[in-house]
Amino acid sequence: MAHNEKLADRVREILAAATSNVEEKKMFGGLCFMVNDKMCVGVRPERIMVRIDPATSDAVLEATPDAKVMVHGGKEMKGFIFIDESALTTKKQLLHWIKMALDFNANAKSSKKK
Questions:
Q1: Domain assignment present for 41
Q2: In CATH, what number is assigned to the domain containing residue 98?
Q3: Pair 69, 81: CB distance under 8 Å
Q4: Please, which residues bridge with residue 34 across strands?
Q5: CA gyration radius for the chain?
Q6: Cβ proximity of 76 and 70 under 8 Å
Q7: How many independent structural domains does the chain possess?
Q8: Which residue segment(s) compose the domain that 54 sits in?
Q9: Is 99 within the bounds of a domain?
Q10: Could you report the per-residue pLDDT of 70-110, keeping only the tens digit for each?
Q11: How far apart are CA 27 and CA 48, in angstroms?
Q12: Dist. CA 51–CA 99, nearest whole Å
């Protein structure tokens, strides 16, 4: 599974400063960072995926041209947003998206263990 290791390192650095309960898993064709056993941020070859509040995702997508909704199995995944690496050139830009994901993570439901 391919992912952007440089981008993953940038995500690791921010998450390590914010929380200690982070687990990395390979999934969805990239690397996923689980926070408190919940999907939070994913890194793919040329973008990241953040899990944000589904109630705000439409407004976020309308306001951000570099963001796209995640489509999985032909279905739009409300609250799962892709952001192109070109819109993440500064630490402040990346921190903005990770902070949104961490804010939602505090209230997100954990997926059921199999």
A1: yes
A2: 3.90.1150.30
A3: yes
A4: 23, 39
A5: 13
A6: yes
A7: 1
A8: 5-105
A9: yes
A10: 988 899 999 999 999 999 999 999 999 999 999 999 998 87
A11: 13
A12: 10
